[in-house]
Amino acid sequence: MARHLLLDRADGVALAQPLRADTAGDRPLNLHKERGQREVFCGLTGIIWLHRKMQDAFFLVVGSRTCAHLIQSAAGVMVFAEPRFATAIMEERDLAGMADANEELDRVVHELLARRPDIKLLFLVGSCPSEVIKLDLSRAAQRLSLKYAPALKIVNYSGSGIETTFTQGEDACLAALVAEAPEAAPGADPSLLVVGALPDIVEDQFRRLFAQLGIPRIDFFPPRRSGEIAAIGPNTRVLLAQPFLGDTAQKLAARGAVRLGAPFPFGAEGTTAWLKAAADAWRISAPHFARVVESGRARAKRALEGSRETLKGKRIFFFPDSQMEPSLARFVTQELGMIAVEVGTPYLNRDLAGPELEQLDPETRIVEGQDVDLQLDRCRDAKPDLIVCGLGLANPLEAEGFTTKWSIELVFSPVHGFDQAGDLAALFARPLVRHARLKV
Ligand code: SF4
After folding, report:
1. Cβ-count burial of 383 within 10 angstroms (0-12 exposed, 13-18 middle, 19+ buried)?
2. Which atom, in ligand 1's list, is nearest to the CA of 159?
3. Measured from the CB, is residue 67 less than 6 Å from ligand 1?
């Protein structure tokens, strides 16, 4: 798959900070910060899963041929329906050409809307070429909104590799979308807002569970259709479904919404704790909660058994990629008996990751940021049984005899909730099983 790497520091000089004493809850944390050369997809990648979720939205990347290649080749293997994204190429223009660039953008939008009148929400997605940086996309979005309102909402955000890593693209998109949410009426009944793009099947499972618990009003953000964006206000209780939505959480808080802190819904334990945070906010009794979750929880635990056999006692090393790493490390150590040697994450949001960090072994090295060469040295030194990393590192590490898992698969696949727990565990077990077979 073609990919465009963000190389943060061409000279690759490490600025690793020394170990600093830190805690999560009342437990010590073995936390390091590292800054140097890193490699990760840019935020445009998020379009691949976001466009499948929002059925009347369209993502127009304002970018270069490189951006177009990235998204077409990434999507080429993943898209099964008519694509809801495209790239408006803005290249080879100087400052004097910016008026033309705006005209060009207006023309592309006009042609797109003439061809696709079903589009109700248009995202203008910024990227990193200098021609695009010079173009003020928020003003372009305002100008075009005036022209096409009310039939079409136009929202802009940046997926630029300078500003975003790959899951930050979803965060930037959803943070921008918060502005489109209506104000909840004062004194409105409390409602639950589940935030993060989940596959429809997972969303339906959660909706059923929340309804059985007795939570009367449940909305998902982003919604499937742009006309269904939930009203937000002080009576909104937010449950994040993904650990990488820090900016979105802040925008929701600014609207008065209250976030419910919880581990993320991975595996039997993570999903139980996540549902419990909502149940507690609605003061649902412990016996009723236990009755509602018991069959799903038991099903999830059973589904983990096979992979647990393979993974128990195995050592795992996470390179920083998706910001899901602390949550996944909690899952594989607590529920599958693995030993996490190092958990790298591009950014560590202590507020969001706190409940997961509290459950990690204090010995586990947690590294925020990356200096890829130093990290590779530590990884080779540790000789883990399984390495979770980006595509660019996986092949060379496999060639050295290591077993790897592509971290991007953990973002693309349905992995949340009781009924996906077995699939999530299998994503970790499969490379080891395959490796063992190859050896035989
Ligand atoms: Fe490359 Fe930047 Fe375009 Fe991403 S946004 S594909 S990093 S040029």
Report:
1. exposed
2. 5
3. yes
